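User: Second chain of the day. Same drill as before.
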Amino acid sequence: MGINYTDYTAFFKALSDENRLKIMDMLSSCGEICARDILAELKITQSTLSHHMNILCDCKLVNFRRAGKWTYYFLNEETVRSVEAFIHVITSKREDWLNRILSFQGVEVVPRY
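Assistant: Same format as last time:
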């Protein structure tokens, strides 16, 4: 098939938490956000935020920069595009797989135009 699904499991595990999804949504809407602003929005503790950000950064969905005592987070656009492309590939193949299954069952497949 050519796709290494294992490469993408870390992304989906990272996104399987409601707070991390909210963080990704915030970053996609605002660009770069200071940790204190994420804390204020989500109403979570510093240690909980640190845990979530470590997971998002470890799988390279999010990058950060430090400015004095503040940490600013932003999306890693290259990784996000890669995940978007993966989702597109696995969802656009549905018709191909369905056609293959139907042809195995002896059902004539009529192309859609």
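The domain at 6-104 is CATH 1.10.10.10 (Arc Repressor Mutant, subunit A).

User: Great, on to the next one.
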